[in-house]
Structure formats: structure tokens, C-alpha cells
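REVIEWER CHECKLIST
Item 1: Sequence provided? yes
Item 2: Single chain? yes
Item 3: Sequence as submitted:
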Amino acid sequence: MKQKTPKKKRTAAAKREARWALAFIAPTMIGLIVLNFYPAIQTLWQSFCKTGDFGKGNVFIGFTNYINVLTAGETWHSLWNTIKYAIIEVPFGVVIALVLAVFLNKKLKGTSAFRTIFFLPMVCAPAAVAMVWKWLYNQQFGLLNNIFHTDIAWISDPNIAWISIGIIGVWSVIGYNMVLFISGLQEIPGDYYEAAEIDGATGIRQFFHITVPLLSPTTFFIVQTRIIGALTIFDLMFMVMDKTNLALENTQSIVYLFYTYAFTNGDKGYGATIVMVLVVFIMLVTFILQRVEKKLVYHP
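Item 4: Structure as written out by the authors:
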């Protein structure tokens, strides 16, 4: 029989090092538990409850909230509004950012200045962004209607308001996506492009046969994160669309619906249920994307 090798006792220095390591990660772990894990568990519990009278306590009601949420037309309408926003923001934000990244990755004069300009929307406060775009979209005094000599109700016409919101979303994320694409482009070896030039490949052929395939892991990461970000959009719609806006119903995201029930109406149980439905939907979308990754993403 094989004899078990005795476990080596840790030295005093190793124990001291472990204690210091635990001390350094403790603030992060405590923060995750207090700010992430506990609220997630509390939200799941509240989704099975109804807020008591005058906001006192939670009354367990089982799956009643889920039945009401899944059978309510406004839930699916808000989810469809969110999907429409994602359809505009994600593809346009990715394609425009990729084109800009390719140009700004070259050694040209003023490249750093242009990178900074395109990234500025990411560091602007959402309230400031909303205020500026509301003035741009203003039907009477807005810059867009004055330039194009039109009289379009950009954010109050139910038929086009969701497109106007999507344009703001694209403008807001281009800089972030562009920086990630530039980082990915700098990881592609220049030997591929040199060999392609020797073979007589044009810049467009190099882009589609070298850049796009080798950049696919970065592209997939951006697409996945932006889809999740678009499905959880709230602040942009909340600040741009007033409660009296006629187009609010056609632009209200599902997170906006959660905010309305949980904080405006005070029904936190119903609001928590909306959040759990959204979480399940995002998990389903993520699962599908992970499956698609194996077929579309090229790993050299």
C-alpha cells in the first residue's frame, strides 16, 4: 500500500502572507456580498411577495406576481421596445466604431485628438447628454429642424421616437467600442498585412479577409456586452422622455417599467418580478450567443 505523504505545515511566513492576502481581498468580497449577492437574493424573494399596506413588510403570494407580469401586455410591449432599441444601438454602434478604429489605428496626424473626441461621450454625465439631445431634438427651436428646415417631432412622435433614442445610444457607445477595437487591432501581427500586400490584396480585401476574422473575438465580446447593456437601458429614456410625452409608451424600456412599479407605484414585489423576467431573458440571449460564438468567432 502506498503511504500517504504527510502534508507540509505552512510556515509562519506563509500564514502571514495568506492573512495579508485575505485582508486585501476582504473589502472587495464584502462589497460584492453587500452590493450584489444580497440584493440579488432579496430581489428573488420579493418577486414572490406583495408589499404590505403602507409599505410594511412583504406578504408571500407565491407565483401570483409572475402570472400577472407574464400575462400583462405592457410587459411584452416594454420588452419589445427594449429589443427595438438594441437593434439600433448594437449593430450601428459596432460597425461605426470598427470603421473609426481602423482609420484611427493608422499613424496619422491628430490621431490622439480624434480618439479623445470620439471617447468624450463616455465620460459625459447622462443628465448632460440627455439635456443636449433634448435641445437638438426640440421641435420648435432644435438644431436639427433648423438645419434641415423640417418640423419633425423627434421625441414626441410615437412612430420615430424610438429611433431618435437609438441614435443617442449609438452616439454614446461609439467611443467605448472604438477603444476596444483599437486594442484588438494592435494585437494583429503586421506580417499578415505585409504578405497580403505582396500578393496584391487591396485594402478592402485585407479588411474583410484579415482584420474582420482576426478581430472576431473582440467583436463578439463587444456585441455580447452591448446587447446586455441595451437590454438594461434606463437612464437615457428616463431623462429624455418626460412622463407626459405621448411617445413614452412606445419607447419605455422594461427597466423603466420596473422603476415605475417599484419606486413610483411602490409595488416592489411586482417590480422585482419584472427584473427576474428580464434576468431570465438575458440569460437565454447569452446562452444563444455562447452557442453562436463557436461557429462565428475565429480563434487563431
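Item 5: Key structural point noted by reviewer: The chain has two domains: 12-46, 66-296.
Item 6: Recommendation: ____
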